[in-house]
Amino acid sequence: MDRKRENLKKFIKKFEDIMTASTFAEAGEFEIAKEILKENRGVLLAIRDGQIDRKTLKYAVNTCKRIGAHLDILYVSSAEAKDTMFERFLQELQNEDIHFTLIKKKGCLKKAIIDYTDERKEIAFVVVELSESLDIDCKDENERFSSLWQKLKCPLVVVTKGV
Predict the structure, then answer these.
(1) When comparing pLDDT for 84 and 74, which is higher?
(2) pTM of the complete model
(3) Contact 116, 125 (CB under 8 A)
(4) Cα–Cα distance measured from residue 43 to residue 152, given in angstroms and rounded to the nearest whole number
């Protein structure tokens, strides 16, 4: 019953947003109408410490700008070591006034991606860098690692490392 009630509340909220946007559109305020209807979408940039490529970082940022999405950065590390290139990237995001959320995890990158996208339904897609190290620290004997990707509920964009 709670699920039905939750779905009904979402439907009512969406209907109210559509009616409000149509009112603004009828009054000639098209930009406001578009903003009201804009969905809360996000892009998840999933990276591992020590294996960060500038091309992958820029791809995720440019995509967020293009589709009007917020950027979530899932940073999976094995230690508390500082990555200077990543620190500079975060500083650039702040300088350009790009809103982002940084989530730090340890362990298996694939599992962290699956868990995060399961919790956050607004993630439009995940950006990762092509790497053999995606299976590092993924030593779960109950599950094959390639089958983890089958549980992903959004598209996966794999960016090849720049030269």
Answers:
(1) 74
(2) 0.70
(3) no
(4) 14
